[in-house]
Structure prediction request, 301 residues.
Amino acid sequence: MAASIQQIRQAAEGWSIEVTPAGATKIDSFAACLAPGTTVNVTFLPGSDPLETVAVTKRLHNEGMKAVPHLAARSLRDADQLDTLLAAYRAEAGVDEMLVIGGGVDKPVGAFDNSMQILETGLLQKHGIMTAGVAGHPEGSPYISEAEIADALAAKNAFAKREGMTLYIETQFCFEAPIVLEWEKRVRAAGNELPIRIGIPGPATIKTLFRFAQISGIGPSMRFISKQARNVAKLMTVQSPHLLLSDLAQGMASDPDCLIEHFHFYPFGGFAKTAAYANAIAAGHIQLLPKGGFDVVGSAA
Prediction:
């Protein structure tokens, strides 16, 4: 059974989005395209200056958004640098939530190799940051094995219970709902109790989606988008994630134990365009299609 407009709208409530420091320079006003309090993740990319992430986080806070900066373990030198960064986030932007990830580099630049090592320093708690996201991998990771992923997730569940912190999972972007829903059931059966935010690729050309899928090295989704990219005539066609969102919404509604709570949008086709699309869906401004999925009704269509 296809998801209803109400189910899709409810699934899209509380959506979040992310921005890179470079991308933020192209946005005149976050408040012009986001409602107050919208959660915006700020990336900390390999080789970048973490102070750039601090600056964007402060700007988002000043514009009334909920800024959630990334902490990339393999890009940090040591605990002293981490302590200094956390102090800056608290003092300059009132940060009380972060996304703690390993970071996409083969060799750590310093003392940290994974996100658990960051959590176990106790520095987030010291600075009053008691909510943190951790990475989820419905399609695996090119950097760590499935066994290591499972062990890490079990350790994070145990850490959350032991330390009284609120942890949640935020996943890589995906294209196929069955893979995501099967993964959620699998990790739940293995003992995961952390709520989940699913990564959604915002509307973008097939060429753009293919490029990001190549960079991420994700498996089934790479095969999915590769099939689309083989048709040269369609490379510049904008692909919407409407089928993915509709199928996820249906899966969430049909399983009361499902731990998926929110969608996190990756704005591959542009920040303002993705924000408008997500806003429209959360407002229920959509029209169901006979063969499944939906169209956005209005200016974001």
